[in-house]
Amino acid sequence: MWRLIEPVHAVTYFAEESAEEYRTAGLKGFWMGYFAGRSAAMGAVGPAVVTATFYNFAPKMAARALPDAWGFASPARVLEARLSGVDRLLDRILGAERASPEVVRAAELARRAAEGATVVGRPLAAAHAALAWPEEPALVLWQAATVLREHRGDGHVAALVDAGLDGCEAHISMVATGEVPRSVLQPARGWTDEEWDGAERSLAERGWVDAADPATFTPAGAAVRNRIEESTDRMAVQPWERIGEVATEELRGLLRPVARRIAQVGLIPMPNPIGLGGEARASGGSGGSGRAG
């Protein structure tokens, strides 16, 4: 379900419509829009909170955007801009189909799943789940996708913390899966060569990656990564259990054409730092766990 939910949410990070709305709101530059837009549901939080909850960014990334963003636009104004950008974008992606019976039904099922998610201990999911729901079905679908992806992402962070990986080390483990190269992850998350190389040495010393080729897991490292993925899946299954297997399968079928349309529009680059795999170009197919490697 992540492979189909994530593209629906993630269009906000790659669309010019979203960037334009943030600029209109007064924000300066892509990363200020990203950090303010994604964190605004928590209020006017500072860089320490955002670094902790987003988890995988070098601390200086959030510090460049926050708290300055809140001097240009309040969290409420930023949320308004975020939704306006998505609204315009959905016109481009779906056109008249955004009001189709299939989208209306997908929005209904996704909202049920999102409202059934337990968000205690999941700060980003809790913040987005507390927002008022839009009225228009396509926007409901996007907001539900947002809650569900942050719910999974909060659990993924917990699994990474439990495994003893910090934000940069999490990326090293992602690279070692072969899903996303260092050339994509490192610049997108702000880690210097020194920080990245230090994280590689740390994992090599633990015996998790090959010291001569840190982009390759040892058997022990592969086992740790598998446990992280299994734990993430286990913690993410609860919303789908709440709506049941039949409704989940129905939603999966309804989301495939939407994910396919997003891929056809070409909004999400491949490869990308989110971990959406190449198969998602055509079918909303395979990918990784998401936001923190």
Labels describing this entry:
293 residues, mainly alpha, 0% strand, disordered C terminus
Beta percentage is: under 5%
Helical amount: 55-70%
Structural class, from secondary structure content?
A: mainly alpha
Spell out the helices and strands N to C: HHHHHHHHHHHHHHHHH
Tally of extended strands? 0
Contiguous low-pLDDT stretches (5 residues minimum) are 278-293
Biggest beta sheet summary = none
Q: What Rg is obtained from the alpha carbons, in whole angstroms? A: 18 Å
Q: What is the global morphology? A: globular
Explain how this protein is built.
This protein has 17 helices and no strands. The protein is an all-alpha fold and 293 residues long. The chain has a domain at 2-7 and 95-160 and 233-283. It has helices at residues 2-14, 16-25, 30-39, 47-54, 59-65, 68-72, 75-94, 101-115, 123-129, 137-163, 167-176, 182-189, 193-205, 219-236, 238-243, 245-265, 280-283. α1 (2-14) packs across α10, α4 crosses α5 and α9 packs antiparallel against α10 (137-163). Mean pLDDT is 94; it is low at 278-293.
